[in-house]
C-alpha cells in the first residue's frame, strides 16, 4: 500500500450512493456548490485577517507598505503558496470532480440501496 | 450580540494525543460550516411555510384531495424552489464538511497512524480480527456521505476515517454533544445511575462503538467494570483505543466484531448498550443483532439503545418527511426503513418480555452549555441531540 497519497484529490472524493440533485437543472446545483465553497473560503480568509489585524494591533510591527510589496523569498515559500492554490481550487471545484467520479463509477440510488439493505 | 444561538468556536473542542493537527484556516473552515449548519436550520423553517402555502394547496387543486403519503409529499415538495435551495445547500454543507475533515486528516495520515500505533503498541486491550467482514449494509453506500465510510484504509493501518469523524461531529452538531462529543454516553450514564442506583455491572458491552466517544463515559462511570466496545471498522477501533489510552481510561477493550455474530459466551454481560447504531444497520441484520444482544445478556441484565426520535401517530406527514431528509440525502438509508419496526416488537422477537420493555427520552449532556443558549431555536432535524432510548431488563 502506498504511503504517499494524493490527499488533495482524495479529500474531495464523492461518497458511495448516487448524489441527489434538488434543482430542476443540475447546472444550478453545480454552480451553487461552487459558490458556497467560495463563500466558505472567503469566511476563512476573513477570520484569518481578523486574527492578523488583532495581533498587529497588539504588537504593532508590520506596515501596510511591507505587505503590499511582499513576494515569496524562498523556494519553500513559493511551493507553499502554490500548494495552497491547488488545494483551494480542488476544494471549490469539488462537485465537478464528484460528477466525473459518478460518470466513471455509476452508483445505485439511495432508494434502491435502502431496499437492498432492507433485505440484508 | 446575536439574537441567535451561536455555535461554540471550534477551538473549544477537546484535544487529545491522537487528535489531528489543525491550522488556523482549518479551524476557521469548521467555524464557517458550523455556522452554516445553524443558519440552514433557520432556512429549514421555510419548508413548512412553503409546504402549507404553496405545495399542499397546489396538490389539492390538481388532485381534488389531500396528500396521502410521504411519497406523494416528497414528489410534490421536490418541485418547490425553497425546498430545492434548502436541500441543495444542506447537501452541499455536508459535502463541504467531509471535504474539510478529509483535507485535514489525509495530509497527515501517516503521522496520525504512527501516533496511534505508539499508544496501542504492546497493549492487549485492542483486538483486531482481519477475518471480520464489513457488513453488506455498510458497503451499500458511504454513511453520512463520508467517502470510504468507517472501514476504508488508504494507507497501512489507516486511522483517518475515525480522525475525520472525530474532528467533524462537533461541526455537524454545532457542539451540542460537548467537547468530547460524548453527550449521548454521559446522558445514559446519568439515567442509569439515577434509575438503578444499586446497579453495579461487572461486564458492559457497547455495540457499534465507532471511535468510542460514547462508551468512554460509561467506562469512566463504572471504573470496576470490564467494558468492551465492538465495531467492524478497524480504523475506528485503532483510533478509539489510542484515544481512550490518552484520556486515561483503561478499563475498556476494543474488539473487531460484527454485532450480529460475536464470539462472546451466552449470558456474559450485565449491560449491553448501543448509541445511534441500529439506524445504520439493515432490515434483517437488526433482528440478528438484537438476538445476539439477548443471547449475551445475563438474566436481570440491562440493555439500552439510543436512537433517532420515533415517529408518532400525531406527527404530520410533513414532519415525518422532513425528519427523514438525512436518511436519503445524508446517506443513512436504513433510517428511512427502521420506522416500520416498533422497538417493542424488535425486542420481543428476540425473547425480551413485553412487560420488561422500556422507552424514554434523552437529551445530550453538554459540558459547553453555559445556560446562555435559547430554547426556542428551530430544531435541526436529524441532528438534534434529543433522542429516543428503548431497552429492557432481561427476565
UniProtKB/TrEMBL annotation, chain A:
<protein>
    <submittedName>
        <fullName>Uncharacterized protein</fullName>
    </submittedName>
</protein>
TrEMBL record, chain B:
<dbReference type="Pfam" id="PF13649">
    <property type="entry name" value="Methyltransf_25"/>
</dbReference>
<dbReference type="GO" id="GO:0032259">
    <property type="term" value="P:methylation"/>
</dbReference>
<feature type="domain" description="Methyltransferase">
    <location>
        <begin position="204"/>
        <end position="301"/>
    </location>
</feature>
<keyword id="KW-0489">Methyltransferase</keyword>
<protein>
    <submittedName>
        <fullName>Class I SAM-dependent methyltransferase</fullName>
    </submittedName>
</protein>
<feature type="compositionally biased region" description="Basic and acidic residues">
    <location>
        <begin position="371"/>
        <end position="383"/>
    </location>
</feature>
<feature type="region of interest" description="Disordered">
    <location>
        <begin position="365"/>
        <end position="387"/>
    </location>
</feature>
<keyword id="KW-0808">Transferase</keyword>
<dbReference type="InterPro" id="IPR041698">
    <property type="entry name" value="Methyltransf_25"/>
</dbReference>
<dbReference type="GO" id="GO:0008168">
    <property type="term" value="F:methyltransferase activity"/>
</dbReference>
<dbReference type="InterPro" id="IPR029063">
    <property type="entry name" value="SAM-dependent_MTases_sf"/>
</dbReference>
<dbReference type="InterPro" id="IPR053173">
    <property type="entry name" value="SAM-binding_MTase"/>
</dbReference>
Amino acid at each position: 500500500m502506498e504511503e504517499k497519497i494524493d490527499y488533495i484529490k482524495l479529500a474531495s472524493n464523492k461518497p458511495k450512493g448516487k448524489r441527489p440533485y434538488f434543482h430542476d437543472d443540475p447546472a444550478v446545483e453545480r454552480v451553487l456548490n461552487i459558490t458556497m465553497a467560495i463563500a466558505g473560503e472567503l469566511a476563512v480568509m476573513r477570520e484569518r485577517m481578523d486574527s492578523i489585524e488583532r495581533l498587529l494591533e497588539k504588537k504593532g510591527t508590520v506596515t501596510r507598505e511591507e505587505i503590499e510589496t511582499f513576494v515569496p523569498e524562498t523556494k519553500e515559500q513559493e511551493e507553499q503558496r502554490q500548494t495552497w492554490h491547488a488545494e483551494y481550487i480542488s476544494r471549490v471545484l469539488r462537485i465537478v470532480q464528484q460528477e466525473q467520479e459518478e460518470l466513471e463509477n455509476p452508483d445505485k440510488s439511495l432508494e434502491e440501496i435502502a431496499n437492498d439493505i432492507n433485505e440484508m | 450580540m446575536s439574537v441567535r444561538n451561536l455555535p461554540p468556536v471550534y477551538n473549544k473542542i477537546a484535544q487529545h494525543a491522537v487528535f489531528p493537527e489543525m491550522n488556523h484556516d482549518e479551524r476557521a473552515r469548521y467555524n464557517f460550516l458550523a455556522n452554516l449548519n445553524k443558519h440552514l436550520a433557520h432556512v429549514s423553517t421555510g419548508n413548512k411555510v412553503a409546504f402549507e402555502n404553496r405545495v399542499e394547496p397546489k396538490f389539492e387543486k390538481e388532485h381534488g384531495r389531500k396528500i396521502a403519503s410521504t411519497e406523494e409529499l416528497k414528489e410534490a415538495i421536490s418541485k418547490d424552489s425553497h425546498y430545492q435551495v434548502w436541500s441543495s445547500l444542506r447537501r452541499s454543507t455536508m459535502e463541504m464538511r467531509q471535504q474539510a475533515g478529509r483535507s485535514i486528516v489525509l495530509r497527515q495520515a501517516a503521522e496520525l497512524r504512527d501516533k496511534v500505533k505508539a499508544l496501542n503498541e504492546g497493549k492487549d486491550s485492542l483486538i483486531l480480527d482481519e477475518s471480520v467482514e464489513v457488513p453488506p449494509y455498510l458497503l451499500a453506500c458511504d454513511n453520512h456521505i463520508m467517502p470510504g465510510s468507517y472501514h476504508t484504509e488508504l494507507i497501512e493501518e489507516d486511522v483517518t476515517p475515525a480522525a475525520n469523524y472525530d474532528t467533524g461531529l462537533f461541526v455537524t452538531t454545532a457542539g451540542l454533544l460537548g467537547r468530547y462529543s460524548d453527550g449521548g454516553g454521559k446522558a445514559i450514564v446519568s439515567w442509569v445511575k439515577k434509575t438503578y442506583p444499586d446497579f453495579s455491572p461487572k461486564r458492559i458491552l457497547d455495540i457499534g462503538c465507532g471511535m468510542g466517544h460514547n462508551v468512554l463515559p460509561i467506562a469512566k462511570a463504572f471504573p470496576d467494570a470490564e467494558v468492551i466496545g465492538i465495531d467492524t471498522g478497524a480504523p475506528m477501533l485503532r483510533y478509539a483505543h489510542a484515544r481512550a489510552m490518552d484520556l486515561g481510561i483503561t478499563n475498556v477493550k476494543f474488539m473487531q466484531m460484527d454485532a450480529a455474530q460475536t464470539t462472546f459466551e451466552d449470558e456474559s454481560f450485565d449491560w449491553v448498550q448501543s448509541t445511534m447504531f441500529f439506524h445504520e444497520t439493515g432490515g434483517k441484520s437488526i433482528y440478528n443483532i438484537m438476538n445476539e444482544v439477548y443471547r449475551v445478556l445475563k438474566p436481570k441484565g440491562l440493555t439500552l439503545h439510543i436512537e433517532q426520535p420515533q415517529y408518532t401517530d400525531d406527527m404530520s406527514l410533513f414532519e415525518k418527511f422532513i425528519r427523514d431528509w438525512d436518511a436519503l440525502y445524508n446517506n443513512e438509508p436504513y433510517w428511512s426503513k427502521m420506522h416500520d419496526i416498533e422497538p417493542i416488537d424488535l425486542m420481543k422477537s428476540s425473547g425480551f418480555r413485553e412487560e420488561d420493555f422500556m422507552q424514554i427520552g434523552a437529551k445530550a449532556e453538554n459540558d459547553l452549555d453555559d445556560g446562555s443558549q435559547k430554547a426556542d431555536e428551530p430544531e435541526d432535524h436529524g441532528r438534534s441531540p434529543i433522542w429516543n432510548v428503548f431497552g429492557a431488563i432481561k427476565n
